[in-house]
Amino acid sequence: MATSPGRGSNTTRNGAVAYHPKGTYSTVTRPGPGVRDEDLGVVRASGGGGRPLTSKLRHLWHQLVDGPLFHSYWALAGTVIMLTAIGMMMVLSASAVEAIAEDSSAYFLFQRQAMFGVVGLIVMIGLSFVPAWLFRKFAWGLWGLGVGLLLLVFTPLGEEVNGNRNWLSLGGLTLQPSEAAKLALCVWLAAQFAKQGDEVKDWRKALWPSAIGFLVPTGLVAAGGDMGTAIVFVLIYAAGLFFAGAPLKIFAGAAAVGVVLGVGAIITAPHRVDRITGWLFGECGATDACWQAEQGLNALATGGWWGVGLGQSRLKYNYVPEAHNDYIFSIIGEELGLLGTAIILLLFAIIVVAMARIILRTRSIFVRITTACVATWIVGQAFVNLGMVTGLLPVIGIPLPFISYGGSALLISLAAVGVVMSFARVPRSVEVGDKSAILDRQEAHEVSGDGDPRRRGPQWLRRMTSQGGKAHDDQ
Fold it and tell me: Residue 106 and residue 17: Cα distance in Å, rounded?
């Protein structure tokens, strides 16, 4: 079997080009004219001609799983740009009415969101060129900066919004330091677990010192009254433990503790009790705590299949509280219909796939855990927000990433995606020994050896949970 010199065409004069998972192409001889497809068990796509259907599906799967990681770079960049653009458009639509009612400019919130969006995109692109080892080197510094910003909330610079003291007022701008602390925690956990390596399999070492690094920022956020953001911190820490290979018994114990703490947080705050009871029993009136949830569902129902038209929402006229923020998805459903909401879900699904490819392909513990924590943060937060708006979850107060109004949240979310994008910027071809045509540096780590390749278990699970060894964690 001779290797084809290039990737130009799919067929040659005397043979066909076969695709292999590792990115190589080889020439195979076509069957003779008397041999039928049925004799070879080949099923061709309807419409006649072309490559067999099974071959096309196999090629598509190989591109998704084993294709260049640089595809994830462009997928993440394009997806978050689209989500950010949609978010700016919907912030303008949802906030203009209330702004005019308050004798303010209809473009005031839109202009602020656009400013943070442009800066965030520049930061995202800039961070995508930073090598991974640099993030790991400054992990402790980032964690300290995040905690320091959270402490400033309890100084005169802090500001209370809707009962939560989780904001800083600086020069006419209000910033949410907990957003920066999320990214800092992702990087710090990854650096800490990468340093420990196989020691994480011991539950005591898995929790020390990672539990302290998690509890300090989470406790500060909870002390400010923002339980929704505290839940996101819990999701990030759980993802870090899982992808580091910590024993599963930790999660059983943590779940029990979490239930106790959650019940305590609910019963000590009357407004949380009202939200839970309203969600469970659904008896709402114009002054009840579940008014916001009810009006959000009404907006979604009003939109139908195609929506009432961009900018034509009626329930944003002071019917849906926080229409430009936590409940912006309901306005999207009303104005753009089921089609618009499906596009949002599709874009978040692309983010999941793009980051999952990096998690499955990398041999770097630091890269894997950082990517997993960022993915859990963004996708988990989106899941909670969508569940809240659709009534599947109680009202928690978590915004929709990239779309809800919030300059600091948008800026840091884009920065987090930029960090993950930097992990996908790897060489397309690396020589390892007598192997050639390897797609990228991550596959080079796999080919160079990392224990017995015939280890038991499915390939996707080995890639996801393999510690890889410190020799392979050079990023």
Answer: 59
| pLDDT confidence tier of residue 283, bands split at 50, 70 and 90 | low
Q: What is the pLDDT of residue 193?
A: 93
Q: Whole-angstrom Cα distance, residue 366 to residue 187?
A: 8
Look at residues 417, 324, 465, 441 and name the one whose alpha carbon lies nearest to residue 122. Answer: 417
Residue with tokens 């005169």: 156
Tokens of 20: 């292999």
- Rounded CA separation 20/10 (Å): 13
Mean pLDDT, residues 261-266 taken together: 81
User: Is 1's pLDDT higher than 60?
Assistant: no
136 Cβ neighbours under 8 A, 6+ residues apart: 187, 190, 191, 194, 366, 475
Amino acid at 241: L
pLDDT of residue 89: 94
Residues 251, 228: Cα–Cα separation, whole Å: 20
**What SS3 state is found at 9?**
coil
Q: What is the pLDDT of residue 6?
A: 41
The two three-digit tokens of residue 436, written as one number: 């050639």
Contact assessment for residue 63 and residue 297, using Cβ atoms and an 8 Å cutoff: no
Helix (H) or strand (E) holding 438: strand 435-438
- Contact yes or no for 76/421 (Cβ under 8 A): yes
Q: Residue 443 and residue 423: Cα distance in Å, rounded?
A: 13
Q: Tokens 């309807």 — which residue?
A: 46
pLDDT of residue 315 exceeding 60: yes
Q: Any idea what DSSP says for residue 454?
A: T
For the chain, the average pLDDT equals 78
Q: What is the 3-state secondary structure (H, E, C) of 251-276?
A: HHHHHHHHHHHHHHHHHCCHHHHHHH
